[in-house]
Amino acid sequence: MTSAFLTLENVSYRYPDGSPALDNCSLNVRRGSRTALLGANGAGKTTLFLHLNGIFRPSAGQVLCNGIPLDYSRAGMRKHRSLVGLVFQNPDSQLFSANVREDVSFGPMNMGIEECEVRKRVEESLLATGMNKYANRPVHNLSFGQKKRVCIAGVLAMHPEILLLDEPMAGLDANMQGELMVILDRLHAAGITIIIATHDLDFAYGWGDDAIVMEAGRLLAAGAPTKILLRDDVQSALGGTPFIAEITRQLLLIGIDLRGNEYLPRSKSELLLAIAAQATHTKQERTP
C-alpha cells in the first residue's frame, strides 16, 4: 500500500503573535507506512501533527486526506479526527475522565455512536493496549507509561486509519518502550498507518519505512531513512548519525563489508547477524 494518505501542499502557519511555525511545507504520508518524524526542538514537528489532525488550520496552503482538502466544519473535523488520531507527548494533556474506561469511551461517545458499539470498541481498545485489567482504575493512580497506553486506547476506540504519536517513548524505561513497540507493531500489522515524532536517530533508522526531517519550520528531507539520515545536511541538522550506520561505515574502512546485496543493517540485531554471517563466510574461505 503506497498511495498518499495525508498530503501537505505548500503549507505555512504563523502563530497568533506572527511568529512563523511552518514555512511552505509539502509532503506525502503513504498509506500503510511507518514514518519517523525528526527535527530539533522547535523544528515544527508538533505543529505539523496539529495540522495533520486538523487542530491547526494553515495560514497558507492546504492539507488533504485521501486527496480531498480538509473540511474544517464541525462535522468535517469530527469525521477527520475519527480517521486521524493524535497521541500527545504528555498523557496528562489528553486524560480528563475519572477512570480508564470512561476516558477511553469519551471519543466514540462524543461522536454519537450507539452505546453497545462504544462498549465493544472500548473493550477492544483496552485489550489491544494491555490496559483491560485497569479498566476501572482511577486515571490519577496510573503510572506514566500506563497513562500513555490509555491515551492510545482512547484514540483506537475511534477506529482511526492513521495514528500520530508525539514522542511516545519519552519518559518510559527500556522495558516499557519495548512493550509499547509490540503494541504499535500489532497496530501497523492490522493496517494502521503510523507516524512517530522522535529525537531517536537509531529508532528512526531501524523502524521507519519513511522519514521526514524538519528544520526551522521547513521540510529539510523526506524519503527512506537509509538514504536521507546519511546526508551531511540532515546529520548536521539532527546533530548526529545513526549508530548502526556509523558502525557499518567504520567496519567498511577496515575491509569488513556488511552490505549484503547493497542491504545495510538497520538495527542492533541485524548488525549482529551480518557480523556473524561475515565471520562464517571468512572462516569458510580460510578453511582448506
Note down, in words, how this protein is organized.
The N and C termini lie far apart (49 Å). The protein has helices at residues 45-52, 74-83, 100-110, 115-128, 144-156, 174-189, 201-207, 225-228, 232-238, 243-253, 268-286; strands spanning 4-14, 20-30, 34-38, 60-65, 68-69, 84-87, 162-166, 193-197, 210-215, 218-223. With 288 residues, the chain is α/β, with parallel strands linked by helices. The mean pLDDT is 90. Helix content is 42%, strand content 21%. Helix 4 (115-128) crosses helix 5 (144-156). The radius of gyration is 21 Å and the shape is globular. The chain has two domains: 4-239, Rossmann fold; 242-288. It contains eleven helices and ten strands. The strands form two sheets. Strands 6-7-8-3-9-10 form a six-stranded mixed sheet, sandwiched between helices. A four-stranded antiparallel sheet has the order 2-1-4-5, covered by helices on one side. Strand 9 and strand 10 form a beta hairpin.
> CATH topology of the largest domain, which one?
Rossmann fold
Calculate Rg over CA atoms.
Answer: 21 Å
Report helical residue fraction. 40-55%
- Biggest sheet: strand arrangement: 6-7-8-3-9-10
CATH superfamily of the largest domain: P-loop containing nucleotide triphosphate hydrolases
- Biggest sheet details: 6 strands, mixed
Q: How many domains in all?
A: 2
Distance, first to last CA: 49 Å
Kindly provide the name of the CATH class of the largest domain. Answer: Alpha Beta
Q: What structural class should be given to the helix and strand makeup?
A: alpha/beta
Order of H and E elements: EEEHEEHEHHHEHEHEEHHHH
Residue ranges: pLDDT <50 for 5 or more in a row? none
Total strand segments: 10
